[in-house]
Amino acid sequence: MSAHRIHQIQVLFSAEEDRLQLRINTHGRAEFRFWLTRRFIKRLWPGLRQAMESQVQTETTAPVDPSNRAAVLSFVHQQAVSESDFATRFQEEVSETPLGPLPVLVTRARIEPREQSGYLIGLHPQTSYGIEVAMDPKLLHSFCKLITDAVAKADWDLNLILSPIGKVVTDMETLYGSNGSNYTIN
Fold it and tell me: Are 129 and 150 in contact (CB under 8 A)?
């Protein structure tokens, strides 16, 4: 998605589909549409949370005491979210849908730190093309808020929390596979 700059992201629960619909539109009015299942979100969340935690460790000048990690992450998350615009309506006008007019079912994801700041998040269907989205820390936190809000409305009994998760890397490697600090969900 390097040719497209993100303009807005929307995540809504579809009761009819029992899925989250992710819509990403660009400044050029292209729109990418995806379905995210409960199972996929359950597997994606630890990687997103680890990305947020890693970002906090990178941005703070002193090491964060493990006993304070949850409070620091919560503070940074609230600060990033408070600076985001959730009030502007999602723009429905679209000039193109590069992946097609219907949402694509995401079955694979990759979360990879960028050399600068933030992460590259890849969202892909089982076959065919998906997208790679560059997210700075503020966008990452905002994206996570959109997901947690939609999951709360879905009543999926998922506890998407920001508290520390213990052996993050080991658990991530066991569940999803790891290549250094890159996380892949298959």
Answer: no
Domain span holding position 55? 6-179
Model pTM score: 0.81
- Asked if the model's pLDDT at residue 93 lies above 70, the reply is yes
Residues in the chain: 186
Q: What is the DSSP letter of 69?
A: H
Question: Going by DSSP bridges, is the β-strand pair 19-26/31-36 parallel, antiparallel, or unpaired?
Answer: antiparallel
- 127-177, pLDDT tens digit by residue? 888 999 999 989 999 999 999 999 999 999 998 877 544 433 333 443 444
Amino acid at the residue 6: I
Confidence of residue 39 (pLDDT cuts 50, 70, 90): very high
For 174, the 3-state DSSP assignment is: helix
Structure tokens at 77: 């998350």
Residue 185 lies in a domain: no
Residue 156 located in a structural domain: yes
Collect all residues with Cβ–Cβ distance below 8 Å to 123 and sequence separation of at least 6.
22, 34, 106, 108, 109, 130, 131, 133
